[in-house]
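Entry 14. Ran structure prediction on the chain below.
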Amino acid sequence: MKKYIQKLTKKSCYSYTVTIPKEIVEKYGWKAKQKLVVKDRGRGLIEIRDWRS
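Output, structure tokens:
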């Protein structure tokens, strides 16, 4: 698996953004403005998946 290093950017007082590399978005078939679920798995792990699955 290829390793990507991304920056955490502050968007507002209540949220931050992380850019997801194009290769990963294409791998999972995600589209712009698609709803995704972000789940904290603990120990620095975050799960991102489609909200319907």
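The beta strands are 8-10, 16-18, 36-42, 45-50. Will compare against last week's run tomorrow.
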